[in-house]
Amino acid sequence: MKWDILHRTRFSYASPVRDSFNEVRLQPPSNDRQTVESFLLKVLPAARLRHYADFYHNTIHHFEIPEPHSSLMVDSQCRVTTRSPNLLADNATPFPLARIDEALRWERSYDFLQPSRFVDTLPQTWRLALDVLGDQQDTWQAALALMRFVHTHLTYVTASTHVHTHMQDVLTQRRGVCQDFAHVLLGLCRAVKIPACYVSGYLATEAASATHAWTEVLIPGIGWRALDPTHNCQPDECYVKIAVGRDYADVAPVSGHYVGNTQRSLEVSVQIRAVE
User: Fold this and answer.
1) Half-sphere exposure of residue 188, counting CA atoms within 13 Å on the CB side?
2) Are residue 104 and residue 227 in the same domain, yes or no?
3) In a domain, 70, yes or no
4) Closest listed residue to residue 141, CA positions, set 196, 214, 88, 216
């Protein structure tokens, strides 16, 4: 499928601010599941954009606005063609869970086994994961079982959390949004030594177009496989991937700091249109 995506972020400040330094993670990568045909990033007030790849191969745009300004707008426009993924069967048993330590032989797996800002592998997280898995013997089946648990254990409630909510708070409240579902699944997977990373992106559905978050787990011998605990599924061609990281802190769409009044408002809108 082909998608046109407009992502607009607007900050309004109570009084002018200055010396604004910002990073933007909004450029999707081209890979075996999607091709980026065009990408355009606009910033107002106008600023010189520089870009580089971070440790996880995400594209980051950086800009600075030294002069006083009362608002900041970041517009991202892209056209992306997605392809139907080669999904792993739900009943597949490709790799024994007893040998999951072999995952460390794979590139970029170590970071995705460790605790991170919003994700932990504490004893209670490990105990919960073991209770969910029971006598499960396969890595893929274990990941699916953990995803199903998160999907049924948590309730999706808009605005019930914020971007700095830790997975333990989500487990206590038993509600959250897509990034919370992803964080809980990350912690459960990592606690039983399954490498798992956070994915930011877009999801286009008949109901709405929005930013979204899901996970990828590493199955040795197979590779990284995407799982969406919010919808209890493997992502299909309606998903557009932007960036990966240890958790949300690594992939925030727009982040930065400035000098001035801390009172500000934020408006974010996403428009996704299927192209014939």
Assistant:
1) 29
2) yes
3) yes
4) 88
Nearest by Cα to 37 from 98, 81, 91: 81
Radius of gyration of the CA atoms of the chain, in A: 19
Report the DSSP pairing between strands 155-156 and 175-176: parallel
Q: The whole model's pTM is what?
A: 0.96
Are 150 and 75 members of one domain? Answer: no
Sheet holding 223-227, edge to edge: 223-227, 209-219, 196-204, 239-245
75: nearest Cα among 14, 118, 11, 21: 11
Predicted confidence (pLDDT) per residue in 44-103, tens digit: 999 999 999 999 999 999 999 999 999 999 999 999 999 998 999 999 999 999 999 999
Distance linking the first and last C-alpha atoms of the chain: 8
Same domain, 64 and 121: no
Residue 66: which CATH number?
Answer: 2.60.40.2250
Q: Which domain holds residue 260?
A: 2-83+252-274
